[in-house]
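User: structure tokens for this one?
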Amino acid sequence: MSLLSTIQELAEYDTALLANTIGYLDSTPAHEWYMGGSIASVTPALGPTVGVAMTLEMDSSSPHNRPDKDNYRLLLKAIEATEEPVVLVVKAVGSRPDHECILGDGMAKTLYSVGCVGIVTDGGVRDVEGLLTVPFAAYSRGRTIHHTALRYVSRNQPIAIGGITVNPGDVIHANIGGVIKIPPGSLGGLPAKAAAMRAFEHEAHCVWRRTDVALDEKFAQVAVLLKQAGFGPKT
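Assistant:
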């Protein structure tokens, strides 16, 4: 299966379900691939958002910034040349963190036109109502009304964001629940296992909510269901 096909299949699943599944496929510690809650969806009507990461360090808050349109054009051309949908992951590095405004709806429309489906940033965004019309998903620290001149500090380098490290080419999956990067070792088998996890969780939740079954019996039943679904001990 191609990476594009895998991404398209993963768009059918919510992010928390995939997070529950990954540990059965890959030994990468969870703290290395899920972002903290400070980065959250501001476009919750959209999603899931799935794509390969392109990374950027950007300063949108420092006084006396000089605009850098050349790097922006290079970024757009790189996205356009990528076969898979792109999620732009942006670390805000300006001198006034509370004033960082990484993206508005004009930039979102341009990014979307070349194949970018959303942004993940530890800065702010604006024009959220306009983002919804594109549609373009945004995961950020919230809204910020304006910015100084935009300076692109580095492009397509590993960045630390949301408590994890994101590398160019990582597969990002996000929705209203939060943001993860999918460990490469789990990617190929994840769509099929996610389908099994969804079926298991439906059956398990029916057990958990019952009031006429003793607690120990619930744990026993769910353990059987987990094994029947093909999930052994976590790797």
